């Protein structure tokens, strides 16, 4: 595997030199030209004292419009997993131990409006890839201004319309009955900007009981009330259903990787129980940006989310109803004379949830077991300043005060057991952050960042632990202290460099466990030590002569080295102190090569190498190394008022045998969720401007 990766890297450099490419600065997207919102500073990546990545629209659209997995996995320090179609997990500088499904330990924003609810859950799989315009990722604790989430922050922006009226549509077809279609309407003028998109995705899935169907409607409407005042209205409706095949042990995986979880003497099969997730969600938000007098700016937003979910599982049938209401407000002031800028703000979310659990009678809800009522509240009050010192030194410091509470009431539905009432306020800390950055001629910078963060147990972790364990066990919030040093440079006009070294100490790390029935519960580990190196290299090189064959040759080469261990962790009679943390590849290399020909033909190639991943706390079982490649060939033609794109692709080009997501610490060693072998896709997209 290592030899194959080495050959690919050597081949990429041969391609560059073979075409005798030369650097041309005006065609290169430089670090100091990429503006990010990170920590509300709205400045270039080069002058942001943190590990931050920005994924633009062109990168998002490089491949098919069905799955964000390859988009996120192109970023150093980010691991996007999919155990089965629709079942997403995201880990930023960490493990997926906490996430059976959904996104936890990461704060998610949609157009700068909080999308994560007070339960600590972000339903990432409800978003439509066809509607996302760009993605910004902050790696590491960001609690000084964004509240909970040791892993980091993901902020996604909806597409915005170009001037005029535009209609676009597309169709994507792939192996295993995959069909994705979308239709979008865009209107942009001096008074407003509107984007509306409807998307439908359907797939039979590679494995048994892994079909997926999703319908999504997105709206983003901006009103420019004046040159100093903008009002935004955004929302989406999503209906999602995906089957869950369940994990396999090694013998089952090798015998038939397409199989779903079989029945045992104690439990029925995934097919018998019609295991699945059925979910409907509606999100609406309003945001307002206004420039006030005396260099004050006020950004505010409110949002409301309703979520209905059904989960027929192997051992039960859960019906979940959730309602969330929240806000975020930030007041900033710029003092040009110093120069100094400061921010004061607050963010809060209230979520009411009902988790009703029934018997699962072959996919039909049976006798009621109990109903859990959970009221969750999460609030953060924060302040920050940035002071530009002499010699281009940027000092940024922030501090937040955070609250988290759960009010839990369990009402038995079919027994005479007494109700259970638990009121819990996981202790969450003040979260300071300080960053010192030195800029060198706007071409390079070096920074040091010290940040504190926390991640309270989610309501699902809280409830599932009470459901599974015989005694009520209150979970503590994870707390993390992160130290990092980074170097960023575009001193060479065709080469962007981003190097980060970090050391994070996590106390009370939340660990997912499964009992004999496959029911999950969580425990706090004593502590984790997470050390890592993230090295990103972006090459943007073009032919200076327009008559040459290629108009662009781009290359990306990322390296990640992680050393994550339990500092202290005992479970029962087992002491795992000093063991490596499951769910983390020690080495990860990502390589990308894009070739675009002047007549519109292009080739995109991605290659992701993962070293083995430990699958349990004992560290006696690990995955195989994996080299996963994606190839796409296409043709793009643009006219004055229209655009046509035709493409075909191969996923898992080298036919690797791997799992895109594992079940860690799984009972019965059911760790594996086999990913599809080599498979194919093709699509067409068309866009036209109208009056």
Gist?
The protein has 691 residues and is mainly beta.
Explained architecture:
This protein is mostly beta strands. The protein has one domain (2-690): TonB-dependent receptor, beta-barrel domain (Maltoporin, Chain A, Beta Barrel). It has 6 helices and 36 strands. The strands form 6 sheets. The chain has a 22-stranded antiparallel β-barrel. The protein has a 5-stranded mixed β-sheet with strand order 3-8-9-6-7. A hairpin with a 2-residue loop joins β18 (340-361) and β19 (364-389). The longest helix has 17 residues, at 2-18. The protein is globular, with a radius of gyration of 25 Å. Residues 11-29 have low confidence and may be disordered.
Architecture, CATH level 2?
Beta Barrel
What is the terminal separation in angstroms? 54 Å
Number of helices: 6
Query: How helical, in percent, are the residues?
Result: under 10%
Structural class, from secondary structure content? mainly beta
Overall tally of structural domains: 1
**Which runs of at least 5 residues are low in confidence (pLDDT < 50)?**
11-29
CATH superfamily, called what? Answer: TonB-dependent receptor, beta-barrel domain
CATH names the topology as: Maltoporin, Chain A
Which class in CATH terms? Mainly Beta
Quick one: biggest sheet? 22 strands, antiparallel, barrel
Rounded average pLDDT: 89
Radius of gyration: 25 Å
| Tally of strands | 36
